[in-house]
Amino acid sequence: MLLAGQFGERGVQLFYIASAFSMFLALERRPIGSAIDLRDFWIRRFARLAPMFWLAFMVYLPIYGDTPSFWAPEGPALLDKVLTVLMLHTWWPTAANSIVPGGWSVGVEMTFYAVLPVLVMLVRNLWAALLLLAAAFAASYPATQLLELLYAGTTTPVLINQFATVLSFPAQAPAFTCGIVLYFLHRAGARLHWSAATVLLFVGLAFMALIKNDTGYWFVVQGKAVLFTNLTLFGLGLLGFAAAVVLCPSLPLNNRVARYVGEVSYSLYLIHILWISYVLKSTKWLGLNLAGDVGFVTFTIITVITGTAAATVTYRLVEKPAIAWAKRLSDRSRRPVEFDAVSQST
């Protein structure tokens, strides 16, 4: 169980698959041939992510704002703080993850939103989605290597490597394209019987279990030709997992509790590092023995339940009002757009 827990960070890739799937699904619901209001789209996306992220920034700034760490060896500089507030932090190594723990994934998500209109215009069927998936997998490694060259000398080599191969949009792009492929499979009417979905679920999990939880690379021809990063291969395993859930709604994983946790998951994600430390201190104060696998499972259950309760508060006080504000603003002023909604033909 402790070994399985080391793969927790890969939940980010699952989030990206779900994000791309849901974004394309939302755009599909517009009338055929209708235009997509770019202003409306970006207002809603910004309101969905920025307010809670800014709250997290204000909470974490006094804790990590001047503290040297792996993510900022000399402590976050003014540039790092400014880029984080602007949500451009995943374009500078020492800004990416030095203030808001895990906040790098939000910056990558914002980059995806920036390119999404182009993807919607270009990717109109399953074949185009599969081509995009292949292109993303093929380009991911060269792009991350280029980033390492571009940022060489800005900070420590090991941080630059981590930034380029994990925290950057090129490194995570294959996960988004997996979500786009899943959307077009869903739209084409692909469905799975619960038995086939269960097999696919376990195949995906087994595939992920075979991959080391690091940023190493798989090689061919005696290590002379780079194939894919382990990160991108992990995304394929997650695609199998996500496909089983999406294409078979009758799976037990599709339930009200899971959907609710998903609803407040953004808040839960941003507070989870701080919340884990609180739960850890509380369990020690109570004298609970959480050693070994049983202790790990107990600690996880306690953290998820109490963390979800805390996330419910921030979701209702911060996220929902921001979402409602964006809806009112977009309803008052709509400007037609410059690209068509997703085509209705596969």
From TrEMBL:
GO terms for biological process: lipopolysaccharide biosynthetic process. The chain crosses the membrane at residues 12-28, 49-65, 99-119, 126-143, 163-185, 192-211, 231-248, 260-280, 295-318. The keyword Membrane applies. It holds the Pfam family Acyl_transf_3. Signal peptide: none annotated. Residues 8-315 form the Acyltransferase domain. One of its GO terms (molecular function) is acyltransferase activity, transferring groups other than amino-acyl groups. It comes from the Bacteria. The keyword Nucleotide-binding does not apply. InterPro entries: Acyl_transf_3_dom, Acyltransferase_3. Keywords: Membrane, Transmembrane, Transmembrane helix. GO terms for cellular component: membrane. This is Acyltransferase 3 domain-containing protein.
